Amino acid sequence: MPHVRTILGDIAPGDVGITYCHEHLISAPPERITRLDPDLILDDVDAIVRELELFKQLGGRTICDASAVDYGRNIKEIVKVAKASGMNVIATAGFNKALYFEDWISKASLESLQERVHGEVTKGIDGTPYAAGMLKFGTSYGLMKPDEVKTARAVCRVQRATGAPLFTHTEFGTLGLEQIDLLKEEKVDLERVCIGHQDRNPDPWNIRKIARHGCFVGIDQISKVKYYPDQVRIDLIIGLVEKGLHEHILIGGDLARRSYLRAYGGGPGYGYIAGPFIERLREELAERSISASRIDRVVEDLLINNPRRFFTWASST
User: Fold this and answer.
1) Cα distance between residue 86 and residue 49, in whole Å
2) pLDDT-based confidence at 1, cuts 50/70/90?
3) What number of other Cβ atoms are within 10 A of residue 273's Cβ?
């Protein structure tokens, strides 16, 4: 039976609704990193529940916490957020990138990592009954480090065994096509994969190539004008719409800092994408002479239909 795996249990795909595909609710990267950059510590359950209310007011129903074990995932606290907010929360199994890896990851065998990740999506995380609904691996800027290749292969083999959706971290949007080569080596179904952070490297040709392999494309840095103005992201989305590829887009903000969130005194927060950003996208699509009915369909695909397809498991695993 097709289903979406949230931390509080499997739900029907039709119950997903408006979805943010890549955020961080509760996370604390290694202390050697947060000692220098404490803005990365998200550890206040009450604050993130207040933040999620901004999303709920715009119709939001589902959100993916993309924090893997090396990024300081705290499943018990994430469960508290899910219960207090009433949101569908999808947790993440797997790994981020070598910068965050602890010694145990480097020392572990591929087989032991595969077994661990398999358990996280089929049984539960860290000895709890709360299972992840998405897999993840990542690579560094411009290269795949040996430990990243090892963790990637472990995650790929779990994907092949379970059919779970798989999100990849690309540093600054690099190595998306190289990741696809590895995914193909591991015989992963590319239609179950999202190559993330492609708006950090807004190269339309490269992004079209990724989409034409059948993968989803993560346009998931929305609102981060310190990288690029949102006009760049709007143009990427419209370009994919004009090429008939917008059904491959997953959107999110990757708001992994206190300074990005209203509840911590920052911004723009969880009200931005489903609010001002989508309003602007509608206006700019209309300026390109795209019909109102097609605009409605594009927006529905970006917010609901695409994430529903991506997060849906076809098997009963």
Assistant:
1) 9
2) confident
3) 27
Name the region of 77 (left: φ>0; alpha: ψ -120 to 50; beta: rest).
alpha
Edge-first strand order for the sheet with 9-11 is 9-11, 3-6, 312-313
**Domain residue limits, the chain:** 3-312
- For residue 186, what is the DSSP state? T
Residue type (1 letter), 52 = L
Count of C-beta atoms within a 10 Å radius of residue 45: 19
Cα–Cα distance for residue pair 4/301, rounded to 1 Å:
17
What is the mean pLDDT of the segment spanning 18-45? 97
231-263 pLDDT, tens digit per residue, is 999 999 999 999 999 999 999 999 999 999 999
* Topology (CATH level 3) of domain 3-312: TIM Barrel (3.20.20)
- What is the pTM assigned to this prediction? 0.97
Give the C-alpha separation, 231 to 217, whole Å. Answer: 17
Query: How far is residue 161's CA from residue 284's CA, in Å, rounded to a whole number?
Result: 42
59: left (phi over 0), alpha (psi -120 to 50) or beta: left
Q: What Å distances lie between residue 213 and 173, 183, 189, 219, CA to CA?
A: 17, 11, 10, 17
